[in-house]
Amino acid sequence: MHYFTISDLAQEFDVSTRTIRYYEERGLLSPIRTESGQRLYTKKERAKLKLILRGKRFGFSLDEIHEMISLFDEDRTGKKQLEKTVEYGRRKLREVNERIEDLLQLKAEMEALLSDFEQRLRQWEGSDG
């Protein structure tokens, strides 16, 4: 069986070894320990890390990610994990859409304000001459 060291995974996924140890502390990863205490990660643990990092990129909390990963261990078909992932994904998409709406409103307000300021500046410049 092929194992990965913590340094291997940190380099591959461009994260710190501290981040990987933190995920272990949170119960998301379970490396094998050698007699000397070195962490060794299986392909399954590597896949979990990849899922954790993808979940973080999409804005999921570590608790949500932990639940999704744990469901696969409970139901090897992956159906429960997929259902929970879809549920969380829909919620996250709603949050993203709300943020987009907020940002579009902020953009419109900023554009209106900037336009007003530019108009005032032109009026000022016109009265200077």
Describe the secondary-structure layout.
Layout: E1 4-5, H1 6-13, H2 17-25, E2 32-33, E3 39-41, H3 43-57, H4 62-74, H5 79-128
Antiparallel strand pairs: 1-3, 2-3
Helix pairs in contact: 1-2, 3-4, 4-5
Annotation, overall tally of beta strands:
3
Please, how many helices? Answer: 5
Q: What string, H for helix and E for strand, traces the elements in order?
A: EHHEEHHH
Helix content: over 70%
| Percentage of residues in DSSP E strands | 5-15%
Shape: elongated
CATH domain topology of the domain at 1-60:
Multidrug-efflux Transporter Regulator, Chain: A, Domain 2
N→C terminal distance: 82 Å
Strand order of the largest sheet: 1-3-2
Describe it:
- The protein is mostly helical and 129 residues long.
- It has five helices and three strands, in the order E-H-H-E-E-H-H-H.
- The protein has a domain at 1-60: Multidrug-efflux Transporter Regulator, Chain: A, Domain 2 (Orthogonal Bundle).
- Helices cover 74% and strands 5% of the residues.
- Strands 1-3-2 form a three-stranded antiparallel β-sheet.
- Strand 2 (32-33) and strand 3 (39-41) form a beta hairpin.
- Helix 3 (43-57) packs antiparallel against helix 4 (62-74) and helix 4 packs antiparallel against helix 5.
